[in-house]
């Protein structure tokens, strides 16, 4: 027997590499949210606006809306072709293709911005196409590589990529923007890092753990333990209509939408809000945002452990408790955050950090409910969360565009926070009505195996 460095835990390598790729793709599309602050001070290229000379990179709120929405349009357009690519070619090739596209468009973003606003919008659209691959990758990695008794840990790790990408991107972009390199090098750095991690992905990942030489027999047994034959096989007849009309699944998606809307709003507008409303200096914004997001990370793994290992509480009770903390308490935190004045800006940072900690409970809430209910089709449920993420990419900028005409006006921002809080309360109430820890009836016969892709996977 070959003595492997990773022993019987090669799945940990798969999770870490997958996680780095997810972080990279997400970081690439949110860089501009921070660099907006620096770009307007770059007068290497100028324009005349109402008789005043301004930086060519000083965008109006309407232009910023187009730039941000382009990613959402690209994500929506990319969902179907990306999922088809996953089905036909497997996650290894499909996700690698998305990573290369993300790296190229990110590296060329400064050039596109120097050409015109619409060239920049076009490249942002392509970044959205690449971004559409993220949640499908999460669903497949969990379905194929996660043992059932480690589901919450896998979910907790892989779905934390949004927060981690914000930590890395805000910190790195803050330093680079204030250095002699300038904001453009933030894009170049992220593009190079993205290409590097996806090359590692292509070398390490395989779509089927049974075909991976680095997976021991003992580890394979653990991965497949208590999984049905239909769960392990590659291609089944999937009951799409029943999945997409299930009240449980629809409520899971609503909860995911409310939480993702919150996280995306923070990732997109926190730098602007911290600068314009709370009065933080540019140099410290990246540090505070990174610190705020980093604090909640240990909570994610503690929550995952408690969800998987706690036996003194019924599974459905754990799901309701975790979901209320992950969804309902987030709404309460948003309301409190909206009322904190600039003179208490440190309190606002603390409040947002607490909000981030509450989101850590999602692995034992709606995510786990969807996984337990859909069983062998859980990858479909998790993958479809990408669509709710697309809606949230629109909803945040749409709410800001509708309510916020003056970025320094805290009252206008509070309207945005109250609307999102209202959705979290609605989703939390519905979860008590529909959530269950039992498998759906349409999972019972496991579907019909149509054909095997094992030979195709070997060729990839």
Automatic annotation (TrEMBL):
Coiled coil: none annotated. PROSITE patterns: MFS. Residues 13-439 form the Major facilitator superfamily (MFS) profile domain. Gene3D superfamilies: MFS general substrate transporter like domains. Its main location: membrane. InterPro entries: MFS, MFS_dom, MFS_trans_sf. It comes from the Eukaryota. One of its GO terms (cellular component) is membrane. Pfam families: MFS_1. The chain crosses the membrane at residues 12-32, 67-86, 93-111, 117-141, 153-173, 185-204, 248-272, 284-307, 319-340, 346-367, 379-403, 415-435. Keywords: Membrane, Transmembrane, Transmembrane helix. Signal peptide: none annotated. GO terms for molecular function: transmembrane transporter activity. It is found in: Membrane. It is a multi-pass membrane protein. This is Major facilitator superfamily (MFS) profile domain-containing protein.
């Amino acid at each position: 027997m070959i003595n492997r460095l990773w022993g019987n835990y090669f799945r940990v390598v798969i999770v870490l590499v997958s996680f780095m790729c997810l972080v990279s793709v997400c970081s690439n599309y949110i860089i501009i949210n921070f660099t907006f602050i620096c770009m307007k001070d770059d007068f290497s290229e100028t324009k005349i606006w109402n008789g005043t000379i301004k930086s060519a990179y000083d965008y109006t709120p309407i232009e910023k809306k187009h730039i941000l929405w382009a990613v959402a349009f690209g994500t929506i357009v990319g969902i179907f072709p990306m999922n088809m690519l996953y089905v036909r070619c497997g996650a290894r090739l499909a996700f690698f293709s998305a990573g290369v596209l993300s790296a190229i468009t990110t590296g060329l973003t400064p050039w596109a911005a120097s050409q015109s606003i619409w060239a920049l919008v076009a490249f942002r659209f392509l970044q959205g196409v690449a971004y559409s691959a993220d949640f499908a990758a999460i669903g497949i990695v969990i379905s194929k590589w996660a043992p059932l008794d480690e589901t919450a840990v896998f979910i907790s790790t892989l779905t934390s990529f949004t927060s981690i990408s914000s930590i890395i991107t805000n910190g790195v972009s803050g330093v680079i923007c204030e250095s002699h390199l300038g904001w453009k090098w933030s894009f170049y750095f992220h593009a190079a890092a993205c290409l590097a991690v996806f090359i590692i992905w292509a070398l390490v990942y395989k779509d089927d753990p049974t075909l991976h030489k680095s997976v021991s027999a003992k580890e394979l047994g653990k991965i497949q333990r208590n999984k049905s034959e239909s769960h392990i096989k590659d291609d089944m007849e999937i009951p799409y209509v029943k999945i997409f009309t299930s009240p449980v699944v629809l409520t899971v998606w609503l909860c995911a939408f409310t939480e993702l809307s919150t996280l995306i709003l923070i990732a997109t507008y926190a730098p602007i809000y911290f600068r314009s409303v709370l009065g933080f200096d540019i140099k410290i914004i990246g540090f505070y945002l990174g610190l705020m997001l980093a604090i909640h990370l240990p909570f994610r793994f503690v929550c995952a452990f408690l969800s998987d290992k706690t036996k003194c509480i019924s599974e459905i009770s754990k799901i309701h408790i975790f979901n209320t903390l992950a969804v309902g308490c987030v709404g309460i935190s948003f309301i409190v955050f909206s009322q904190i004045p600039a003179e208490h800006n440190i309190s606002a940072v603390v409040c947002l950090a607490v909000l981030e900690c509450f989101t850590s409970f999602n692995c034992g809430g709606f995510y786990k409910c969807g996984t337990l209910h859909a069983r062998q089709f859980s990858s479909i449920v998790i993958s479809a969360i990408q669509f709710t993420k697309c809606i949230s990419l629109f909803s945040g900028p749409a709410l800001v565009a509708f309510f916020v005409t003056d970025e320094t006006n805290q009252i206008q921002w509070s309207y945005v926070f109250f609307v999102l809080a209202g959705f979290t309360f609605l989703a939390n109430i519905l979860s008590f009505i529909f959530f269950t820890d039992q498998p759906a009836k349409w999972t019972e016969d496991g579907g019909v195996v149509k054909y095997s892709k094992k030979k195709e996977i070997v060729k990839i």
